[in-house]
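Posting for a labmate who doesn't have an account.
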Amino acid sequence: MGKITDISTIFGILSALALAGFAIYLNASEGSGGAGGFLNVESLLIVVGGTFFLTTACYSFSEVFKANTLLFQTIFYNSEQPKSAGMAALSVAETARRKGILSLQRHDDLRHNDSFFTRGISLVIDGVPHEEVGKIMENEIASTAERHRKSTSIVKRASEIAPAMGLIGTLIGLVQMLGNLSDPSAIGPSMAVALLTTLYGAVLSYMVLMPLASKLERNSRAEILVMDIYLNAVLSVGKKENPRRLEMLINAILPPAERVAYFS
């Protein structure tokens, strides 16, 4: 059990940014201006800084920090696969059926593991009634789902704020430009700020934050599904049911392509 390194998110975002950078390079190589013209510190401060601080204003520092932590996990790690979780759950259930619940203390999937599944099994081993164990685990699932929902909403809000900050920067640049029409040398820098903030806002929103929000939602659904599998497994072990019934329960909540065949 555990999470595996997932490069799809970082690969997709970096590839999209690289394509945009390559387009800028081709544009610069055709003599229409250097690539350095696409870099503007003022525009970056307006878009990146403004997006971060306004998003923080909508929530709290602790919520934004937790969202950033979850984002890091989303970028670099993938949720445990439901199929592998189902196989692990059935292995534990079969061991409990054949050797007794106390034998699970030495099970390879549970030793030195502080996962949701391990904590549930530990409660069963300690003799806690399976009804109470179920309530405890259901509360943790609900708490996890709410935490993920809030983190996703934070990233989505940031993706909405970024283009708005780009528009604000554009208006700032236009005001500067219109206020200096008598000075032709000031028109170019002001127009650069106006256009680049719009560009930065669009890139930050549509090429970074929105894909991350979608991945957060995807990982959240997968993690909740895995937790549901483990909840059913813990309750099955606590009730001392036949593992074949657990296999049917697991396959009932898994997508057809992900269903397990442990006993076949």
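Reply:
Got it, the structure tokens are right above this. The two ends are 22 Å apart (CA to CA).
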